[in-house]
Amino acid sequence: MSKKNREIAFDIVNYTLLTLIAAIMLYPFLNVIAVAFSDYSAYLENPLMIWPRRINLAAFEHVFKDPLILSSYKNTIIITIAGTLISLLLTIMTAYPLSRKDLKGKPILMNIIIFTMLFSGGLIPNYYLIRSLHMIDTLWALILPGALGAYNIILMKNFFESIPDSLEEAAKIDGASDVYILFKIIVPLSTPIIATIALFVAVGYWNSFFSAIVYIRDPGKWTLQLVLREIIMAANTQLLQTGGNYAEMTNIPPQTLKYATLIVAVVPILCVYPFLQKYFVKGIMLGAVKG
What we know:
- Keywords: Cell membrane, Membrane, Transmembrane, Transmembrane helix, Transport.
- The protein contains 14 helices and no strands.
- With 291 residues, the protein is mainly α.
- It folds into two domains: 3-45; 59-289, MetI-like (MetI-like fold, Orthogonal Bundle).
């Protein structure tokens, strides 16, 4: 077999495998969409459908009218936006001094930061800390504890170190302060890594539900993921109860409502990702070059 024929055969096998893998990965999404938009009788006839049948939007109407789901959606948006902004600010202000060669005690500080990646304080000490700060049953309990991560600091620090020192030296000659250099020179040049970390942090806040289970008591402050968890747990009993205040659903089957809520929960992240995708690979590669 000639080299050209071997390349053609390789391409055929390669594309066939990639197509098969893509189909396997896409099927669950297509099934969720099909069931959410279909009448429940169609779902009972064919639970494995990939195309909507006898379209019924009752589940989505309920999702957008239910006060508990709407309040959880609002809470999740607030937590995600506030948490991402606070996390980026803290990460930038921590990584910048650590990226300076003349910082005293830099090895010790880096070892402390790396230590937090290997060992955590534990759930019970964290709970007592949050309670002592009077943040139990507040949205701050879901925002502040995870606002600063060691991995993000290291990525940001490495990216800052890849920026030429000559830019900072020229700015200092012109009389620029460290704050001016950071926010007017360094940060604008660091768009790829900032966008990458913003995506990491935002997805983490959006998908987080364990913290809400531990720290939140008021159903009005629940996150979307926690409400979704309640719906999924109740689907097996055909009765939706969240804190005893959720009405029994007789017209909307739990399976359809569960999938409709899943779609509503995923759409915001899917809408944001394409705008940050172009920065993603560049940010990770440049941020991980230096260690």
